[in-house]
């Protein structure tokens, strides 16, 4: 009995390609290796620190808080300085040093620069703008460097202009008066002793203008570093107010608690921020502090705070 012969199955017939309106266009040929690729119509340039500085300058000058804070600082320093110079000029006895009246307005004006230094960085964290900033410029160290440079130069220039005007007011209204009889000759500079009347020396002019502006700008830069570390506007401003005011206040409470406590209080007053600023005008609490050495100490503290701020800013997420 024979079985029917098995035939192998025929291969499936591929469907016919669609015709007419449903026909598909042929696939594009593969781009040969090494051939021309896509060219963006937008020119691409390598970014550098200058671009970040331009961006930060645009941000800081277009924010209302910057304009108002610096305007209030300028009015406080110049307005109070003019009023003090006018009051001292109406007195028969001369004030020594001649430019010392400019410290009063600057003690209040520095608080505005401190607040602005904090807001330069913490305002971006509070609004979420820091994400946009870091997306546009992923190099975080470059962002912080640009912020520090722009803010430092802006605060230094504004403070320098205010201090120069105040020094001019004091030189006009207070300078040129006879030397008081009761004053210690060691407190007088060589120019005053030679002229026989109160004159501000070149060192006093430098300290009351450039030195004071550097001191306040460094305080603002320290505030920016503290704001970067804390990422909180109230916390950073409170911390900086404690740094500025607390050592002097504590030194006053230590008076009358024995020689040991009073010695600690003297050191706190000597190295306090307020005494450092007054020393640049030769109006320190103890009369012997060197304002430039205290300025160097503030620069060292600011540098240490900035190193910590860079470490946190570049390693922690937003």
Automatic annotation (TrEMBL):
Residues 1-36 are annotated as: Disordered. The chain crosses the membrane at residues 67-88, 94-121, 149-173, 205-230, 237-258, 292-313. The keyword Transmembrane helix applies. Residues 19-33 have a biased composition (Low complexity). Residues 9-18 have a biased composition (Pro residues). Keywords: Membrane, Transmembrane, Transmembrane helix. PANTHER family: BACITRACIN TRANSPORT PERMEASE PROTEIN BCRB (PTHR37305:SF2), INTEGRAL MEMBRANE PROTEIN-RELATED (PTHR37305). This is ABC transporter permease. It comes from Streptomyces desertarenae. The lineage of its organism: Bacteria, Bacillati, Actinomycetota, Actinomycetes, Kitasatosporales.
């Amino acid at each position: 009995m024979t079985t029917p012969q098995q035939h192998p199955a025929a291969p499936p017939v591929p469907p016919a390609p669609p015709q007419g309106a449903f026909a598909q266009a042929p696939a594009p040929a593969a781009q040969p290796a090494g051939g021309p690729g896509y060219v963006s119509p937008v020119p691409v340039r390598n970014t550098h620190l200058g671009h970040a500085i331009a961006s930060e300058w645009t941000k800081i000058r277009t924010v209302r808080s910057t304009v108002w804070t610096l305007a209030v600082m300028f009015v406080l320093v110049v307005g109070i300085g003019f009023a003090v110079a006018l009051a001292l000029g109406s007195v028969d006895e001369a004030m020594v040093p001649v430019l010392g009246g400019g410290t009063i307005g600057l003690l209040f004006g520095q608080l505005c620069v401190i607040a602005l230094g904090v807001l330069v960085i913490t305002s971006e964290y509070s609004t979420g703008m820091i994400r946009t900033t870091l997306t546009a410029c992923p190099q975080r160290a470059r962002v912080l460097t640009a912020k520090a440079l722009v803010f430092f130069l802006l605060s230094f220039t504004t403070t320098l202009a205010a201090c120069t005007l105040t020094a001019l007011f004091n030189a006009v209204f207070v300078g040129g008066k006879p030397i008081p009889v009761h004053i210690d000759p060691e407190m007088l500079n060589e120019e005053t002793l030679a002229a026989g009347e109160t004159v501000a020396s070149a060192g006093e002019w430098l300290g009351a203008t450039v030195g004071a502006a550097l001191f306040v700008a460094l305080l603002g830069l320290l505030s920016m570093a503290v704001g970067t570390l804390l990422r909180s506007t109230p916390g950073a401003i409170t911390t900086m107010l404690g740094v500025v005011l607390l050592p002097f206040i504590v030194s006053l409470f230590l008076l009358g608690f024995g020689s040991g406590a009073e010695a600690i209080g003297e050191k706190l007053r000597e190295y306090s921020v307020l005494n450092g600023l007054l020393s640049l005008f030769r109006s320190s609490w103890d009369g012997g502090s060197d304002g430039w050495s205290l300025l160097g100490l503030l620069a060292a503290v600011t540098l240490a705070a900035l190193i910590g701020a860079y470490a946190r800013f570049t390693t922690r997420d937003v």
